[in-house]
């Protein structure tokens, strides 16, 4: 039988290699700005898509988005003056379909 010397790592080396329970990497906070809204506006402006903007008071504005910034959009209308609409009064907006008359709403 041969005597062999047992080689053990020091306790401090083991502690350095073990993950710490309190210091685990945290999940990233989602970005505040995803640029999805900007991409949507740019796409609709480039295509000059007729849009319907529904306001919080129920009024509908129909026209083409001509310009936008952080707080408002500018809607170019054929019938009537152009409007600068603050975003906080917009409930939602959607594309106006070609077969849809200004007063007709298709819920299908």
What does this structure look like?
A five-stranded antiparallel sheet has the order 4-3-2-1-5. The protein has helices spanning 11-17, 36-47; strands spanning 50-55, 60-68, 72-76, 83-86, 90-95. The relative contact order is 0.13. Helices cover 18% and strands 28% of the residues. β3 and β4 (83-86) form a beta hairpin. The chain is built from two helices and five strands. By secondary structure, it is α+β, with helices and mostly antiparallel strands. It has a domain at 50-98: SH3 type barrels (Roll).
Poorly predicted spans = none
The radius of gyration is 30 Å
In the CATH scheme, the class of the domain at 50-98 would be Mainly Beta
**What class, by secondary structure content?**
alpha+beta
Task: Summarize the topology.
Elements: H1 11-17, H2 36-47, E1 50-55, E2 60-68, E3 72-76, E4 83-86, E5 90-95
Antiparallel strand pairs: 1-2, 1-5, 2-3, 3-4
Task: Using brief descriptors, characterize the structure shown.
SH3 type barrels, five-stranded antiparallel β-sheet, 108 residues, alpha+beta
Task: Give a quick summary of the entry.
With 108 residues, the chain is α+β, with helices and mostly antiparallel strands. It has helices at residues 11-17, 36-47, and strands spanning 50-55, 60-68, 72-76, 83-86, 90-95.
């Amino acid at each position: 039988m041969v005597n062999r010397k047992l080689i053990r790592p020091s306790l401090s080396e083991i502690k350095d290699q073990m993950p710490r329970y309190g210091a685990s990497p945290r999940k990233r906070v989602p970005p505040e700005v995803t640029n999805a809204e900007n991409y949507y506006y740019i796409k609709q402006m480039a295509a000059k898509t007729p849009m319907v903007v529904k306001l919080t008071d129920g009024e509908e504005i129909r026209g083409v988005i001509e310009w936008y910034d952080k707080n408002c959009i500018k809607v170019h209308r054929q019938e009537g003056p152009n409007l600068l609409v603050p975003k906080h009064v917009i409930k939602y907006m959607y594309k106006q379909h070609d077969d849809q008359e200004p007063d007709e709403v298709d819920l299908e």
